[in-house]
Amino acid sequence: MQYGMIIDVDRCVGCHACVIACKAEWEVPAQYNRNWVHRLGPDLTTTGMAATYYPGLCNHCKAPSCVPVCPAEKVSATFKDKKSGKTVTMDIAATWKDPFNGTVQVDRERCIGCGACRDACPYGARYVDESLKDDGSLGKVDKCTYCMPRVAEGLEPACVQTCLARARIFGDLDDPKSDVAQYVKRGAVGLTSKAVQIGPNGMYFGSKKGDMELLMKAAPQELPKVSLRRSLLTQMSLTAKNQVKDIGLLGLAGALLVKSLQDDEK
Q1: pTM, two decimal places
Q2: Which of 22, 94, 161, 174 could, after both became Cys, cross-link 156 (CB 3.0–4.6 A)?
């Protein structure tokens, strides 16, 4: 199984209902977004002037660039397929790709807020909420989860349920009879480029060549470079600050590490 989402740009009217529904469902702070709707154009294409909308969200990629860069300490986790009963045990960091449904998920409890996964995503689909920082993190990362808690209860993702134009279609891409698989057969494609080929499972369909040209221009043109030094410094500074808190005074080492992290961010 591989869950995926199709955006039918022929149907999208740019109403932003999907964005609001997501914020309401997951209490996303006003300054952040798990999904978005951008207007593209009017602009000149090979078929003349065109304008369309780009509804975006986490693509739950086949080879997600966000997963391998997570520096959080790995733990052993067992996943179970509800249909077959098969289990898989593997070591995961604070973000991982589910072995059975193909979604990319986040354990916010173990997230250290370093921003490595956010920086690694070429689609800009993650954010770090710094207001949630605590003794173990500089904030908590968040993103679209395809509303797995809702899906587990037999419901559609909030954005899909709310879309008045039914421009969002969710389902199993590996099921040839599913609506999403049928869209792929009709030509739905992910936003990729020569340098970015990580298998997005969020795809777009449009019957107008000009609209699709605009969408493909919005595809990321390079994979971001992630500073492993920044992630390491985050871990070290958090450890130092916790040690400082335990002894009740500000140590020179902790102060230097925090300053180094701040300089690295600049």
Answers
A1: 0.87
A2: 161
